[in-house]
Design a protein that fits this description.
The chain has 330 residues and is an alpha/beta fold. The protein contains 14 helices and 13 strands.
């Protein structure tokens, strides 16, 4: 089957429901079945720019006049609105939302119409301050009247993304050989991160470590992992890939991560060429030290796990296919 990382949506807190945040202390929670499903799934990221900006509930209503936000009592509340808008943009970028779903007519969140600033009930074409700043940051903004468009965008973003398989584990656990066999079995593409490092630098892994040091090798490895953009691909990582949280988060965005667990004694037996294998070890560090350091990291990033304590890579592949079936991968 095709898998995807669930796409997030920034949403006005008053539409989301819960504790009231509107100026009048009332709620405008949406009851549309699609919206409620998105909420249940954890897709929605609620935000009220006005409350974040420091304004109380309830509060004097305000409207936009040009670049300023003026309350009914004449007070200029632009700075609070701007502070909240900036935080909304930051949150949207941090959560990598595909769009924002905001309350129409609001001086913060209106995306098509806002009140004209005279407090006479007249509407004009225009945007609220948060809506405007989100749009300037490249984030599409919809109103609560455009749920059809939001649903279409979600479908378009998620429908055709084929999941990757990311293999992690100690050196000599068989990631590269297993990866090739898995790619054949599942009719997927294959990428070996260690080979990408060698192609990028023109050097073997061991040459990089010997000539430039372990720290430099790690910087190169992290950048190469961050550069991998693939779908429907088996990705065999180096044993040290789990040292880099940003790189692992990137690889896991649309992937099932398989930890190939290998007992230390088996690693020792297989890894007889450790001095030339290109293993990122510091001076004086033993294989036992490396194993103790890395195993908790592999366990942190795994989605599924198989044990490779035998000589047959075909059996490891069969084990992976079995756990993937239970994980509903394809």
């Amino acid at each position: 089957m095709k898998r995807h990382q669930m796409k997030k949506i920034l949403v006005s807190r008053c539409l989301y429901g819960g504790e009231p945040v509107r100026y009048d202390g009332k709620s405008k929670a949406l009851e549309d079945a699609r919206f409620l499903k998105w909420k249940e799934d954890g897709r929605l990221i609620p935000v009220c720019p006005e409350v974040i900006g420091g304004l109380p509930v309830p509060r004097t209503d305000a409207q936009r006049r040009g670049d300023k936000i003026i309350a009914r009592d004449g007070k200029d509340v632009t700075e609070a609105y701007r502070k909240g808008a900036e935080e909304a943009v930051r949150l949207a970028q941090e959560e990598k939302v595909i769009c924002a779903l905001l309350k129409e007519k609001s001086p913060s969140c209106g995306s098509r119409q806002i009140y004209d600033g005279t407090f006479s009930g007249n509407l004009i074409e225009g945007r609220g301050l948060t809506s405007e700043m989100l749009a300037n940051a490249g984030i599409v903004v919809y109103s609560e009247l455009e749920l059809d468009k939001v649903a279409e965008l979600i479908e378009a973003c998620e429908a055709e993304v084929a999941a990757n398989l990311v293999l992690i584990g100690m050196p000599a656990c068989g990631k590269s050989v297993t990866g090739v066999l898995l790619a054949k079995a599942l009719r997927m593409k294959f990428v070996d991160a260690d080979l990408l490092i060698q192609e990028t630098t023109g050097k073997s892994l061991q040459e990089i470590i010997d000539q430039e040091g372990t720290d430099r090798f790690k910087k190169i490895e992290e950048q190469v992992l961050l550069s991998i953009n693939a779908e429907n691909t088996v990705i065999a990582t180096g044993g040290s890939a789990v040292y880099y949280p940003k790189a692992m988060a990137h690889l896991k965005e649309n992937a099932v991560t398989v930890y190939i667990e290998t007992p230390l004694e088996v690693v020792k037996e297989r890894l007889r060429n450790i001095k030339t294998r290109g293993v990122a070890m510091k001076k004086g560090q033993t294989l036992e030290d490396l194993y103790r350091m890395r195993v908790p990291l592999y366990e942190r990033y795994e989605d599924v796990r198989v044990v490779s304590d035998h000589d047959s890579m075909e059996q490891t592949v069969a084990d992976i296919l079995s756990v993937l079936k239970d994980h509903e991968f394809r």
